[in-house]
Records
---
Amino acid sequence: MAAARNDGWMVKIGLEIHCQLTGLKSKLFCQCSSDYRGMEPNANTCPVCAGLPGTLPLLNEKAVELAGMISLAFGCKIPDRIMFYRKNYFYPDLPKDFQITQYNAYGVSSIGAEGKLEYIPGAGSGADTGGKTARIRRVQLEEDPGRLVYETGSMESSPFALIDYNRAGMPLVEIVTEPDFIDPRDVRIFLNKITSIVEHLGACDTSLEGSVRCDANVSVRGGNRVEIKNVSSFKEVEKALTYEIARQKAKSDREIQVRSETRHWDDARKVTKESRTKEEEQDYRYFPEPDIPSIALGQEFLSAIQSLTPELPDDRKARFVSSYGLSPHVAQVLIDNKQLADFFESCAKINRSPKEIANLIVTDLMGLVGDDKKDSGAIFAGLKIRPAHIAELAGLVDRGVINRNTAKQILGQIVKTGEMPSEVANKTGASMIQDADSLSKAVQEVFRSEQAAVQDAKKNPNASNFLLGKVMQLTKGRASPKAALELINKKLKEEQARPD
Amino acid sequence: MGDLYRLTASQITSGVRNRDFSAEEYICEILDRIEKVEPKVNAFVTVNKEQALNQARILDRWIRDGGNVGPLAGVAVSIKDNICTKGIRTTCGSNMLREYVPPYDATVVTKLQNSGAIIVGKTNLDEFAMGSTTEFSAYGPTRNPWDISRVPGGSSGGSAASVAAQECAVSLGSDTGGSVRCPASFCSIVGIKPTYGLVSRYGLVSYANSLEQISPMGRTVSDAALVLDLISGPDEKDHTTTATPAIRTTGGDIGTGADADKRGLRVGLIKELTAGADAEVSRIVYGAFDLLSSHDCSCTEVSLNAVDYALASYYTIATAEASSNLARYDNLRYGFDMDPEGYEWNTYFAKARSNFGPEAKRRIIVGSYVLSSGYYGKYYLKAQKVRALLKQELKSLYKDYDVLIAPTMPILPFKIGERVEDPLKMYLADVDTVIANLAGIPAMSVPAGFSAGFGVGVQIMADEFKEQTMLQAAQIVESGAGVNRSPDL
């Protein structure tokens, strides 16, 4: 893994992230619904998004606003005037056989440009000292094409392709970074941050399948750039990049030139593959879209979107640290997934033990979330958990009714049944053993059975922790650790006073 | 009766409204007329017989019941076949759309129908409006009603011929580089290309979006102006109309309208264009010039330097936009009958797209070339610079002149087939008309005289949204030229 760092290999990774603006009601250039998922094929189309002859695009102003907010969140400059361009290419999923998009080669006219975004690299990535920065080359607004559907699920084995234009014309924001990443793990952290930002802006429900897509390009030692497509999730992006870097290094070691190409990520075999179709050098013949005159934005637009922008993840994290007293690390984990952060705040509203709540969420509840759901917006899918559960559970721990270990067990039960924590605790008798009688009985029994350890502990006070562990085991974790340890130490002193 | 078909739009509406004759009687006569002259003229791709008769009957019943009627009540209109009509096939003169029936009406069509007009048919055109003769149609050439061995001009040749041959009272064409004014001149009728953005393009099948406007045609200035009034105005379905002021041209009452300028108009005659025309054409243009002079207009000859580059700029921009607009005709979603079974999609697209005619293919290829990477700055961008210069030069001319006049076409109608093999020569004939499209200004052709039995139109151009002024000048020319004749068919 160390090889992924900038140790002479000069790994360069750039990203292209496509994010559907599912927060909008309608498509980018017509009134069709943006909520096309689950609809009968081609039911969500009109003459405009089907590209029928004579139709004209009508720009969704809300899309410009949202894309502007996204651009600001990424520290981009917003030009005074934006334009749309046509990108011309033939493909069956493209109703007009061109895509309306933005283009900066003839002067900056995309909604955002020249931004930068800081992120905190994970532990062990070699830059624990603080944040890293990735530059954002541009943010642009464009339309999504339709979808090719293969009967068997794959192009290779299907005798024909079906086309569904329900998605055609969905508003899409494309975020393009400079090749500023050197470590695939940083990429994943960065992508989580982007997801959290668009979630906080209400721009995109990232739990919807295909609402966020990422292509990556990577090169080593200044060699040719390889584009990786078809990556289904952010975790897979990290794996694909790790694989691809290893592949390119191996080539480089043997002095074989890396070909400039597009490779597809094979999810099943966990390798990147050459694209089956021959990629020709495409000439997209960009030119300004004549049906959408250039749009003046100016100061008024900027003020408007600034006032519309809700609290963003970085500010929210700072607030979590200052108002709730959370550690920066715990706050970061919560913030990285808006759903988690919202859940935390809902709990904290019910019960004012924010630290305990955060602990329960970050360590215990997250332990129950499947790996496949951790980066998704549907993090609690399948778990019967509500804020009231965690709030009550935190209260029980805070009041010393149960210990954290018990809380964790109870949580395991709640997510399956949806019962309230107090019910579970009563039913299983899980409340902490606090009374001196039951506790001293347990301690006495341990002292009897663990003679050697007792002798040990008499000389070495640290060894009393072993005895505590045994007491906890005996009481099935229900003993109050504090009370038990006091009893153990007291008894040890008595034993020491007694001559051998 | 028996000659209702000759009436102008305003005569028809008042006749129908006062129940001098019924809309049904009139439409029947129009349909008879169409049946009689179509074999010679071929102005229509589709005649909308049943529906037109039905609408006429509904209108008559409505009037009998005392209902209010619109300003075009009962008037037979024809619509160029690149303007979408719900339920009526819209072919664009192309094999690519041989079976295409739009599911929606163009905004202008809705507006016309709301004002009581009756659509009698869809008119022939050069494929996707690319041409100046109406010979490049998959549905056969349209013939000039004044001499059926000659071209009617184009690309709205079907519309112009249908109006001249009295198969309808007025028509809607489209003008991208002269496509309404050229056939108006060749067929001796009036054609008005409005200011860019005055009329909604929603439903006009795009050839070159930044240049074209739907444009009314009629046998008189007031008929064409009446239609312009009804179809103009901002449309929320077309972004390029939204910054447009709603203007009224005061329809049939231009010369004496309240806004009419009592002071004589300041008229400039563009020297370069008049000098470049055939002697007969230039004689008639100077005739109109003198006529305006005698109507208290101050007339001066002026120079327009950017003329030299206008044609090159036009063909660069128009073909670039066309190459992209015509990409969608891959026969996957609509078009004609061709089974995709067994084709890889690229092969299928190529095979389907081979059904474009020669002129469309030529323009797609030229347009793809000028947009290709590395050539954008050399062609497309340079063309846009010329366009900006031309606009600037005209803007400064309009400080001193209310209208500019020039020939509409530098030549008289030629024989069918005469120029088909020489596209460059054909393009050169557009030199007078493309200027208004590049600059976005209003321009119209009005009959100003006859030469060897053919009408010759004079072109009048005004500044942006100064249609009213332009129409005043046109009415002077119209009234003085005395060219109110009909072809023998």
Note: The longest strand of chain B covers residues 443-451.
---
Amino acid sequence: MIAELGTLSTLVIYGAIASYVVAMIAFAVDLSGFGKDAPADRRRRAAGIAMSTAWLGIALHVGAVVLRGIAAGRVPWANMYEFTLMAIMFTVAVFLVVNRRKDIRYLGLPVMFLAVITLLVAITLLYVAADGVQPALQSYWLVIHVSVATVATGLFSVGALASVLQLIRHGDERRRARAGAESGGGADPGGDPGGGPPTGDGRGVTVGNSRRTVAAREQVAAGDGRTVVAVGADGGPVALDLGGEEPEVEPARPTFFSRMLDAFPASESLERFAYRLNAVGLVGWTFVLVTGAIWAEYAWGRAWGWDPKEVVSLVVWIIYAAYGHVRLTTGWNKRTVAYFSLAGFTALMFNYYGVNIFINSLHSYAGVG
Amino acid sequence: MAGYTPHGLRGTTETGAESMSGTESSNGRKNPARPPAKCAAAGNGRAPSSVSGRTKGLGVRGWLRWIWRQLTSMRVALLLLLLLAVVAMPGAFFPQRRVNPILVNQYFEDNPALAPWLDRAYMFDVFSSPWFSAVYLLLFVSLIGCIVPRTKVHLEALRSEPTKVPARFTRFPVRSERVVHATPGQVSVRLHAAFGRRYRTKLGTEAPKGHGGAGQAKASTTPDATATSNESAIRTISAERGYGKETGNLVFHLALVGLLVVTAWGQLVHYRGQAMITEGSTFVNSALDYDFFEAGALFGADGVAPYRIRLDEFVPDFTVDAQARDFTAFVTLFETDGTTSEQTIRVNHPLTVGGSRVYLMGNGFAPDLTITDASGEVAHDGPVPFIPADDDPGYASTGVVMVPDANDGDPQVAFNGSFLPTALRDDDGAYLGSAHPLPLDPVLVLQMYTGDLGLDEGVPRSLLTLDTTDLDQVTATGDDGAQAPVQLELAPGESVELPNGHGTLTFNDLPRFVALDLRYDPSPIWQGIFATLAFGGLIAALFLPRRRIWVRLVPRADGATVVHAAALARHDDPGLRAELDRILTALPPDGARKKQ
């Protein structure tokens, strides 16, 4: 009976993966500008389908984790397979919960992609049957320490995805600013061209039509070099005076990629979002370090012993602490801030996969390799 | 590269993290009397380029000052922080002596050419290496050099009043303007109440000449005090909240220093010992009775309370597929005041005696052996711990039996070999290992040596591995006529004749042993206090909003009041607009409303 629950849990995880795959495809359709020329509500219909399947996915996911816990007769986060399940569950949960307060559906595709890939890795490479745990893990600190670690990992994951988008967006905005400068006047260099959802930063809400306006501006493919005709937001021709300057470089054409980027908010807004997630993640990770030290004091007779897992966890904390300092000190480029965020996430991933599998550590509870 | 500044604030003074708590005169210039703490305010910490020029001819003092300024700059502090992460990483890649000396020896065997060079670079002692120590000490010096001046500034700020109301509100992105049909005095009272206790407020008046110019401000602390003054005067309110943000920030950093200090203190006064005791035997908490003992520099040997612990029984619990589920050591504790008590020691549940803790760190079997020598004298009698191999669920263990007293020392006798709790044999009867940690089919498999054990030379010898340099392995003629090493195999209760008339070996019983770690360290409670402070401080520093709201109330000829309000936050504050709106909802809803 109990063993069957474990098998059932695995089946339900397959169901969750399937839901996430459907959500991923729907998010991709949403982002790809499938309905570029269609009314806005049709575009959002793909996103709506994606959100529904993502909620279905996480419902199955939570169910699988609960079944796993019942099958093992303990909290379901005691080995690498279970930890991965939990971390991805919280990654998706962070995305879904934040999305209830502010529209971050643009993150759906990367979040679902990460979820599908990681769950497939978990189920093919990390799987172990549900069972009890060794004496060292029999402590309520397992409940506290490890669960917060999975939540923090989920927060850092979404934060890192936002940082990646921010960097992509930075490059895009710089290209646009250049193109805008070359085409003279019209464009606002370094401005906020995104037609994305309102960012709630109190700095004005982007107009719904600006997506098209930007695209139109990009179509300033100069024919005679002085006056170009572009298609305005209303579909009519718009004349732009180029101010007598010959454009030296042909401005970027609206590619599939650039259209997709239009769905994302401005890099500044993405950066702020990433910071908020990472700040909460940093607090969580601090909690993980402190509770880990308390547990180690009881289990191993020392609070801090420079075990490889402890070393790399500290390195993760240091990088995110440095990220916080860079973020809160003026004078730093926001791209640099994003690189710090990604460096922290890289260290986090190494701490998880690298240390667990390749390095002899007291934390080698993976049950694999 | 110019950094990001809040929209609309480019070129103003309100860009630095610290500048919010710096004073600002009403005409928008920074008050030069109080420079902000540089580690936070100097942008990204880049020292002004003129500094290097100025240091010429400044002599030793000038250089020291320059070095101190560099060290306490945010840029260098960040560099040291990242450097700490970098220099810590080898500690994860290479085995560390203090963590796992066996793995270090293994590394030396596997990489005989590389290992000595790595060793010279302290790669096996990263966390006590000079370069690691240098980085973290410099980092903490930098941190203290930064935090102490900031603490002073903050303590002053806590005592001082909110800043003066800026002359122009137009440069603040979050601002409001509306007209209220009430006198400035009435509006002032309402707003003052709306700010509530979270805000520290200062009320003032300005001369009405060209409102917006810097009038001679009068300040008072209560709205009533100015209520009687001329109703044509412009009233101002300066409100500030979130001092806890900087308090949290400082508490966080100071708690990290505290954490380092108490950890160092713990290292100085601590002691730690390891001992293996078998069922039925007693161990005395004394440096002499430990197999391994270390103590800090300030440790006094008389500080060890000589209590005793007797291991009555060790009860493990394994699943059928050899997974450990529980370990319990039942012990009797004899304390120094004469009290005796029955106690248990389990993994995750150490035994606390006085200020020290006793941890259950390992367990195994200690076959009880009696060995007689060639003359029939008993040369050895007692249990010998056999150490289970790491990560072997079946507890296949290895051990050494040394009998220095055999034959009056000439020759001495020794055995090494394995103990298998549940012997696993191939078809020819050769031993493959152990199938289960419980003694379902226990076998002791030994090789025998004679010669000089070298115990009298004063060189420390491991009791767990046999140095066979001066020993000869005992052989016998096999079935095929060739000499072959003798292998002795015994189950509990069995006795064998040793070859060549060397005597007998009897396997009496199979008690278990436990490895106990005993540690005295008074620092964990303090570490816990400082870690909690750091955690709380971090939350306050990251999430408490730091806000300033200024209001200027300009009376209009028709008796109404024009309310100008502006808000500024340190760092991003998505709730700033909502906060300003919340304050202004305290005003009567009439009047034209203009929001920018």
Note: Chain A touches chain B through 58 residues (CB under 8 Å).
